[in-house]
Structure formats: C-alpha cells, structure tokens
## 1
Amino acid sequence: MIEADVVVVGGGPAGAAAAITLAEAGREVLVLDKATFPRDKICGDALTTASLRILNRLQVDVPALPSWQATEDVVIRSPNGREERFALPRDMGVFAAATRRIELDAAILDRARRAGADVRDGHAVIATEADPEHRFVTIDAEGVGPIQAQWVIAADGMWSPVRKHLGLAIEGYRGEAHAFRQYFRHVGPRACSELFITFEEDLLPGYLWSFPLPGGGANVGFGIHRDRTGYTVREMAQVWPDLLQRPHIRAVLGDDAVAEGPHRAWPIPARIGRLALSGARGRVLFVGDAAAAVDVMSGEGIGQAMQTGIWAAEGIIADEGYPADTAHHYERKVHRELVADDRMSAALIRLLSSPRGARFAVAAAALSPWTRRNFVRWLFEDESRGVLLTPSRWHRDFLGRPGSYRDAVRPSS
C-alpha cells in the first residue's frame, strides 16, 4: 500500500493550487485525477482580477500561454439596448484576461509538479474509506491501488466521488445554474478586443458573454439560473441559435464569425456554505466545485476554487494534531470570506431578475466617472463581492491595488 501525507483528488485549479501550497511547505502530496492533462473544462475562460492575483502569487506564467488575451475594455448592454463601456485601469497590470482552460489547467498542474507534487493523472478514484478511529483515510485509485493518507483534499468537482463515497452527496443535485459555451474564429473587431456582456430579457438574471481570444477568436456563451427561468437544458439548446442571430449580437461577432465546433453545456454549483466542507472527522476537506464555491451571480469559480484549495492546504500545514479543529478553522475561513459574497450576489440576482432592475443596474454603474471606474473593478473581483458586509476585510487600498502580470503585453487601446 502506498502511503502519503496528503492526497489531493482532482488536478484542476483547486487541487493544483492546494498541491503547490503543500509541496512548497515541504509536505508529501500525491495528486490524482481521472482525466489525462491537458484536458478541456467547459468554461467561459475569463480570469478575474482575483484569479489573476492568485495565479501570479502561485508563479503560474499564464501570459505565456498561447491563448492568453488581456482585456481593458468591458462593454455591458442592458435589456433596453443601452450599451456602456467601462475601462479597466491602464499601466497598473492586468485586471481581466481570458485563456482557454485546456491550457490554463495544465499549466497550474505543471506548476504543482515543479513544486514537488507527485501527479498521477489518468487514474480515477473508485473508493474512499475512513479509518474507524479516524487516524487516516484510504483512497483506492484505478491503476494505482490503495493509498493511505493522513489527509484528503477533495477537489473532484460538482459530483465529487469522494463526497459520494463518504455518504455526504445530495441526491439529484444539478447545480444552481446552467451555461452554454461555443468557440468562434474570424470574429469581428469588437469581439476581438472587447469583453462584451449583454443582459437579454429572456435570460435574466443570466447573461450572454463574448470574451476575446487571440488570433481573431472568441469564447461565446450564456448562462441561466435554474429557478428563475422556464428553460430546460434541452430548450436552452434551442434558444442558442436564436441568440446568435440577434442583430446586436451579430454586430459584435461580425458576419464572418465561424463556430469552431458544437456548443457544450455544463451545470454550475453555487451554494457555498450549504454543503458540508469536511468529512471523516476533519480528515477530508472539500474545495472548489466539490464545495460549490462558485459566485452565484456571475458563475465565476476559478478564483474561488484556487482560494479554497489554498486555505485547505494552509490548514493542514498548520495542523497541530487535531483534524477536527483544522476542519473547523477551514470551514470558518470559507464562511467568513465567501458566504458574505454569496449573500451579496444573491441580492444582486434579485435586482437583475427583472428588465427594470437590470436597466437600473447598468445605468447606476455608468452614473459618473467614479462609479464607472470602481464598478468595473468590483465586477471583476478586484475586491470580494461582499466586502462591504465584512468589515474585517476592509483595508486602506480598497479598489486601489495594482493588477497582476505587470510586464504582460496589453492589447492596443
């Protein structure tokens, strides 16, 4: 039987961030994933300011990836057709970017390898069992066999096998939202340079996006909330061609835009604080999608995934022999940092659920140079979504800190 200090199940951003943190602290860490990297993850591919700061801190050279595209201009369209342009700060680093997940996730996992993690992709976890006295956890992985670990970080996605093995899964859970994504090439000038978001009346409080990628490409998609629209997933597939033919969307994509392949759909888990964050009396910690740590308003989860992975790893590093206490401290950290953000996002969803509310939100954001400047930074998680609700996170540089990757090439203005 293989023995390991920590087993991380899942090599995506949450698991890889945890593995980097652990390995650099000198802990023995083994990463398992059923997929073989590089592998695609259905996603909008956008990176927020918060995500970029974490990636920079983890020393992942994202600007070196072929599909990297930094963005400075954000255009938001309200249901009445009003478009407002918001400019992210110039000459302070990157505050928003996009890069394909097939490249990004592989780059973060490669960074974990270089840090010293033992990465074994292509091996699915088929069983998880806690020692009756909770001294260790045994993981069984295809092609690897049983592994005895002091700790397990479960970064294995929305339908976490580890959560299921421990009897902590929610039967029938399908996520709070659903999204579609399709890649296009030969897009027009706007789609090449603008990060475009449109609040379509029939999608509220969801939205459609077009995020620029290099070489005349774009990631185009839309998301809806399951309990706030009447669409089923099948009906969403039927809506998609209609959305793409709407004149204002065609104007952004351009007449020559061509789909690279069929659209793909995925569910979004966004119920942080309402799922168990630990199991096996603290020996197992859930992070990322396995903890449903996704922003319920935007559907963004890369930054939240990496942050929960880092918090779990830091808790293990600091453990003094009391796993239940470590799990408790991790849970408190997640609640303190993310649950307030979830509540703020839920309030914004109520505002954006009606055309009138969406029109008001866009108009209010564009009210003055001050609102324009600070709204767009807040939108891209330059500060946590619910920071106003948590005074412990206030600081003197609020919405004034630099971005990341200051030496990265920026698009021309």
## 2
Amino acid sequence: MENIDYFAELYVAGLFAVAGWNIYFPHRDKGFDFIISKDIYLVGQIIRPVQVKGKYPTEGKTNKAVYGYVGQLTARHPDMVLAIPFFPYENPQKPSCVAFLPNYKIKPHAKGVHCEPARFCEGMPIPRKEFLRFFNEEGLSKLDSLKWSQKP
C-alpha cells in the first residue's frame, strides 16, 4: 500500500503544479507530505502544508452514505490542505475525483480525525452535495484565496 500512497501524493502534487503552485517535498516524510506556495496578484504569497490521503475501495465494498478519511494525521496546521483523491474500484490508476479540504473540515474521531466529503455508491466515490465546492478544479481554485482556510 505504501507505493500506491506515494502515487496519490505525486498525482495530487501534479494537480497543484498544473494550477500554478510551487511544490516543496521534505527531506524526511514526517508530518506533511509536501508544502505548496503561490504568488497571487494583489494578495501576495500563499503557503500551505498538504497531507494526502488516498481512498482505494476494495472488492466487496458496500455503499456508504459518508466516505473519506478516518484515522491519524501526522501533523495539523490552520492553513493546511487535506487532499483526498478518491479512486474507483474499476480503475485504480486515476482518481474519479479529488477533494481539497481546509483544516476546519477535519473533525475529531475515536480513531483520530475524520473528514468524509464523499459517499460510495455502486463501486464509485461521489462528492456529497454539501462538499461539492471542495472538489476537483473548483476546490483547487478556491485555495488561491487568503480566506480559504477560515470557517465561513
């Protein structure tokens, strides 16, 4: 599973690069998977730490009303991005969607934390209606705002 997790990190880093972000990988994988920065006109430089948690359904996974990451995070930061690429069971080489979530959407859980912005239906992850703004290109574009990490 370690190699596939690394693939998810690089896939998400590629999405950030295409969107104009600079990506900085740490010497040691302790804490954040990477750091992103971007100069925004009339705003200045934005710097955000990123954790990536890929979701890979296994054969026989049943439908779920909520689906996402449940577990421990190695680090937290007020301006962090929790990126969750959701891979479909049928095609694990490309995520069907990617969520880019601010720290305030990460909630306490008995196993550490949870952030479940999708549902799982008939073998496919599907963004939940109330989290749509955090997914794919729309979600990625919102990171350009200084207010992105602030609770509305």
## 3
Amino acid sequence: MDQEAIVQSIIASLPEITVLTAACLLLMLDLLFKRKRVALIGYLSLAAVIMAALETWFLVLPMEAVYSGMFIADPFSTFFKMIFYLATGLCILASIHYIRVEEIEHSEYYVLLLFALCGMMILASAVDLIIIYAGLELMALAVYVLTGFNRSNLHSNEAALKYVILSALSSSILLYGISLIYGLTGTTQLGVVSDALKMQAEFTPLLILAVIFLLAGFAFKVAAVPFHMWVPDVYQGAPTSITAFMSVGPKAVGFAVLLRIFLDALAPVQEIWLNLVIVIALATLTIGSLVALVQTNIKRMLAYSSIAHVGFALLGLIAGGAQGQASVMLYLLIYCFMNMGVFSCVILMRGDEFKGEEISDYTGLSQAYPGLALFMLIFLFALAGIPPTAGFFAKFYIFIALIEQGYVALAVIAILFSAVAAFFYIRVIMLMYMHKPERPFDITLSVPMRIALGVAGIAVIFIGIFPYWFLSLAQLAVT
C-alpha cells in the first residue's frame, strides 16, 4: 500500500478513528475523575458523536473502496451512520439522569456505547464479509455488557445471558455461511462475490445452504421471526435506555448489511432467498402484531412492536431496486426518532419508587403531565402509522415500492396488520386520556431528556410534513 492509499484510507475511516480514540481516552479520563463526574463523561461522549457526525457529513472521497477493497465511505454508509449517530446521541441524553436513578452511574456505560457505535459504523462501510463479521462482534460485545449493566438486577443478568448465548449461536451460523461463500467463490469481497455468482451455471446445495445460513444469521440480528425469541426477555431485562438503543442501532445496522449483501453480492441468486424473505416477513408481521396485543408490560409490548416493524422493513428488501432500498432507509430513519422518543417517555416514568413499566402505570398520565402525555401520543401515533406523523409515510413508501414491483397482495396484507398493530398503541393512549390517575407519578424532567424528547418529537412531525425531502436523501444515497 503506497503513501497515497494510506492517507486515503485514514481519511475514509476518520469518523471511526475519532469514535474509537474518544472511547479509549474517556476510559482513561475516568481514572482522573475517580467516578465523581460521570455525567461529564456522558457529555464528552456526546461531543465525540457530534464530531464524528460532522466528519462523516463533510467527508468527500471518490467512490472507491479502501483498505484493500474492504471498506468504503459512500453515500449509502453515510446515511446509515447518521442514523447511528442520532440513536447514540439520543440514548446518551436519555441516560444521563436515568442511570443515576437506576444506581448504575458508571462512565464505562458511555464508553461501551461508543464502542458499539464504532462497530456499527464499520458495518455500514464494510464491503467485505470478514470486516462485516469483525464489526458485528465489536458492536455485539459492547451491547452484551450494556444489557447486563445493572448487575444487581436479576432480570438484567438473565437478559444478558440469554442474549450472549443466542447471539453466539447466530454468529456461528453466520460465520459458517461466510466460510461456505468463500469456499464457493474464493473471495469475501462483496463485489467479487457477485461477479463469481453470476458465472454459476446452477444452484448447488452448498450455495443454497450458504445463502440460508447468511439469511438466518442476519435475521437474528434484526429480530425477524423465527429468530426473535430473545427480543422480549432481553428488552424487558436490559436497562430501558439500552433497550431503546438496541431497538434502533443494531437493528438499523442489520438492515444496512442485509441491503448490501442480498441486493448486491447475492443479487444473482435472488431465486434462492427471495421466497424465504417473503415468508419471514409475513411471519414477522403476524407474530409481532398479534402477540403484542396481549402484553401487559410496555417494554415487552414495544419489543413485539419492534418485531412487527422489522416485518415492514423486510418488505422493502423484497421490493428491491433503488426504490425498495430508499424506502427501507427512510423507514429506519423515521423509526429511530419515534422509537427513541417513546422509550424516552418510558424512561421518564422511572422514579425512585416507581418503575412505570406496566401499561396500567400510564393510566391518567394526561391529567398529571399533559406535556409528557402529548409526546407519548405523538410517538404512539407515529408507530401506529397514523397521519400526519412520519410513521405513516414510513409505511406508505414501503407499500408504494411493493406495488410498483407487483407485490400487491403483500402490500394489502401489510396494511391489514398495520391496522391490527394500531390497536395496542391506541390502548395506551386510551389509558392516558380516558381514565383518572390511579397513583401519583414520580417524574423528573431533566434538561438532557427535554432535548431528547424535543428532537425526537419535532423530527417525527417535521418528517411527516416534509417526507419527500428525506426520501430524496435516501434515494440519492442508493444511486
């Protein structure tokens, strides 16, 4: 590698280097503070995220892969990295007061968030299966620890253990699929894999098995049925701020990799995986929408809600093409704001003597805290896909992409399940606005949380009013 290539590689990965360096420096800086200024570490972590976002936004490079063709800084990766920055930044803001209430206020919390962010950024830019796996493990290891960060809580310990065991199984399946692809094509670079598969005369059993293993591995990462079994327990047991982060960041990065691999590298063998993805998407919509109806814990309800939303996003993968990819990317951007927003409201319900994790705990919230109830209303309407919130247009453009590709029946089924899903969101709204409070609320609205709620709420409304602006950004990122 000559000097010019080295410089270009460093510039292309400058945001990742910034986040990784910041994480290491903050970890050492904590030794000077002696754990007395954890909130300052949080604000410095947020500053590192903002700095990386600015570097990513203004990074201008030729559309060529660096690091021997394994890493690329293109508009596609830039779009997804912005989603990761938003999710991480909002998580940090929502955590500053929450981890103090939960008595888990340690600076390692923010450092682990930065490590997870770095892994997601690497995944978004990776165009090689080995780098994809390395980024996946960097992200996963940090999230494992964050899931069990509340060591005194048995549910948190159980959630972390379940997540580690099942995630390790899925990673081994994924790695086996990668090894089969390498054995069949002689490469792990996505572009070269695509060229090699175009020359395949027929679909061999090993090729079919490799594609199935890859699909299974990534289906676990995005929590698609039947690989969703870990989601309800992990979401319920993890600290709520980490549940919010997990519901957006790792899910979005899973779709970034799915789009790169299946619509690029595995496009020549679409006949193998397309029908499988259709079945998985329908099963995910069905299980996520129906099981959420009977939940009494709001974190479990939102866990099944997130499963249902994965089903909608998979429909964009099925539609394929530039329109399908753009619709998935817009969906994930909107999902970031509305899910981080609704989980921020759940975090606010946590007081010194009150957890606020049962749906019944929201009874009469509008009479005690009308502002918080209004934000909750906006986010729940968005998740239900009710206009004029951004959630409506997130689903609308998925349906348009499906119909344009001739999947009218799939679009109709998705619309029906969207109506079913609206019921369990409206159930919470009814409790907030149609009933009197059953107990006093213990809510402390800190400045960072006000910022997080304000950003998420304004974004949900603004994107709902001007959706085409953001769809155009997604379309530019895939052309």
## 4
Amino acid sequence: MKAPHEVFEAHNFDSEDVKSFVKFAREKKEIVRQAAAKLEELPILQGHDDSLLTNKRKTQHFYSDFINRCRAKEIEDSITDHTSETYRARFHSNNGSFAGAWLFNVPTDKHSTLSSRDFRIALKLRLGVDFHNLLTTCCCAQRELIHNNPATHLFSCNEFKPFHLWRHNSIQDDIMQMAQHGGVRAIDAGLSRLTEEDGRKGDILFPGFGRNGTDLVVDICIANACAKSYVRTACDIEGHAMSQLENRKIEKYQHAYQNVGVDFLPLALEIHGVTSETFKKFIRRLATEISDANDIPYCIALSYWQRRMSTTLQRMNATILRSTQVKISRRLGMMREVDLDPNDHTFNDRHTSLHDMTA
C-alpha cells in the first residue's frame, strides 16, 4: 500500500481485482496526503496512520476532514485573492450553522415560512447577487449612492434606524417566546429602573438566570459587516463587526448593572447571520430549559429555535430592504412603486425575464 510507484507496478498481485483495489486505495490516500500537505498537517496525518494498528476508529471521518478543510481553504484563498472587501466581509458574515439555518426550515407555520419574494431577497443578500432595480440614490442628507449592493449602505444608514429596530424587536420577540416555552421568566418592560443611568437599559431581564443565581439582563445587537465602518477589517476577520458592537454594549451597560448586582450579556449577530459564541451559548441554555420543561429531545428544541430565529432575521432583512425603497421613493418625490420582487427576472447580469427563458 505504501510502496513506491515502481515497486507497486512490478509487484505480482494474485489477481487484477486485487491490483485494482490496491491502486484505488493508493490514489485516494494520495488525495488525503496532498490535502494534509496543503494544510501543513502532514505530521498529524502520519501520527494517525502510525496508530492504525491499535486504533482504527473514525479513520474515514479523519481522512474526510483533511479533504473538506483543504477544499474550504482553497475557496477562502481564492476569495481573499480575487474579490472585493465587501464580498469577503459578506462571505465571513455568512459563516456558521445559524447563518444558514433558514435554508433548512420546513415551512409549517408563520414562524418558519418566508414568502417567495422574501426568500429570493434573502438568497440574493446571502450570495451577494446584484439587485438591478434598486433606487440609485439614498434619501439621507449625504445622498449616498446605493449601487446594486444594498448591504453596503441601506442596512447601516441612520435614515432607516426605525426599520432596523423592527428586526431587532422581532429577534427579541423570538427570545421571549423561547423563554416562555422553557418556563423561564423573562421581562422586557421597565428595565430603565434597574440602574441609575437614565435612558440606559438592556432588552430583556431574566430573574435568577445570571451567574451565581443573580438576575441577568441581555441586550440584542445586530451588526452589518459590509458597512463602511467595519468592512476594511471585517473582510479579513470573521465576526469583527459584531465583536465591535458587542464591546460597545459591554462598555455601555456592564459596569452600571454590576453596581446593582445584575449580570449582563450582549447577544450579538450580524445581518447575514453569523452569531457570537455568547449568543449561541445563551440559546443552547434556553433550549435545555425547553427540553426539560416539555420532555422533548434537546437537539430538536435547539434546531427548531435556531431555524426560527434565522428565518426571522432574513424575513426582516427583506422587509427592511423593501421599506427603504418605499421611503426613498416618497422622500425624493418619485411617483412610482419600487418592485424588489425578482419573480420576473433571473439573477444574471443580462436580467433576462423568465418569460423569455421559458418561451
């Protein structure tokens, strides 16, 4: 199996079938070896192979991991070398199981369903496909150019903060519902009375849910990795935008809540779906409570709520995008409705209608 090529060719096999089998195995093992070499992990592969006489468990998974990670690295290197900062920031912001959970949802109720229009908008945002029918200029004071990629400006412009708040509140509602299903007390009103800082308050209070049995306040924050203030670093560092926002929340709230004996957590994510470890850990804890309270498997509870929140995020992204176009049109006196539903168009640059394609 490990002999040099000339030795293999000169070897006298018992049959052609045996020779074909060994040749096939050698070719596949060479693919694994090359993948390990590209990852600079040949010693790890060799160490595993040396232990095969005593431990043969999960070898297929071990080899597959090299191949899959090598392929992922090739894609990442290609994106790093040949794409724009915005493209790379969006690529990083799409990473993780939460970011793609909405794609695996079964549309059985209103919480797990996206309309065809919203699904297409969410998909185009995920893939970075151009929106050819966006209004070209924003209605903000700077009259920023929008181009064909709405994530660059429309999801970070202060002109549309009320729309961004809709998305925030929808995620907050899902967390409240999750707590209710788990029998966990959750309060989202009157929190400004907890601290001495006027106007400073988190989003949800969980009595007794913090460290050492203290009360816990969480604050939800949603960042845009493609925004001008983040993109130059977010294109190289996954989660940079949400980490910066998370740190600002900690600076704003943590000390004030500590002074009154209340624990604090920022729950950060980005508009394309990548989620902070703190957020994921918190969701897993609520899923455990739901599992125990309703006698259902933990994995089912976690999967459902992960997909539900991911779907909520994408539905609200689509709602925000459609709403920005209506506001811009009215503010700039454009007497026309803006149709973001790409039902009549494919996603290519020629913008060919589906009618022409099917005719």
